[in-house]
Known about the structure:
Elements: E1 52-58, H1 65-71, H2 76-83, E2 96-102, H3 128-134, H4 136-144, H5 151-165, H6 169-180, H7 200-210, H8 219-236, H9 240-249, H10 251-257, H11 261-276
Antiparallel strand pairs: 1-2
Helix pairs in contact: 1-2, 5-6, 5-8, 6-11, 7-8, 8-9, 9-10, 9-11
Amino acid sequence: xxxxxxxxxxxxxxxxxxxxxxxxxxxxxxxxxxxxxxxxxxxxxxxxxxxxxxxxxxxxxxxxxxxxxxxxxxxxxxxxxxxxxxxxxxxxxxxxxxxxxxxxxxxxxxxxxxxxxxxxxxxxxxxxxxxxxxxxxxxxxxxxxxxxxxxxxxxxxxxxxxxxxxxxxxxxxxxxxxxxxxxxxxxxxxxxxxxxxxxxxxxxxxxxxxxxxxxxxxxxxxxxxxxxxxxxxxxxxxxxxxxxxxxxxxxxxxxxxxxxxxxxxxxxxxxxxxxxx
Length: 277
């Protein structure tokens, strides 16, 4: 999911209790009585802020916390407080979150409004998915006919995307260099694609994590897929070496078998690239 977009922090609402006004005191003190003295005004208790009830909402593709808060007419601060996110940038499609609702209010539970997605780019009349399904030759031909960024532009794109998703800049750059030398036209023998050498099925997984379809043949989406995968790996691996190795070997295999010999060489190489970034 993309980082939440938050403007200025909301102002804190403080309850202001006005002092009660009283009439002028009578010449003689009033008699003791359980009933209130005639003509005397009493301070009314300040109304309590209505307590909020809670409802649940399931994160859908394209959501972010800002739009969810706006759609349900709650502040972003209230939404964050209700859920106590360890990292609000790591809310994923399918997660269930709590939405605070003012007492007496109704939870509409309507989906967050989204813009109609732009028509996907095609390659020789084929969709990105169709190109990748045809295999390595079709992928290489599509990329050869597509404008791609220079290496310096690709480096800047990786840095920008890493910042956006909260991923270590050196790690993203090091993986990208190890995988392709920051070359979007790179295609492996098993049809891993582009700058971050993302396999088609991994691209579909990354699309689910970020909430929209990613075109691996397009440099920005390719980098986004790789960085989203790195974000997941760094959050779930026991340490940096396991995260790096998992990009190459897979997290399940790393946990079960540890790094293979070629994975150890991969980790050392990525570490060396990181030192130079």
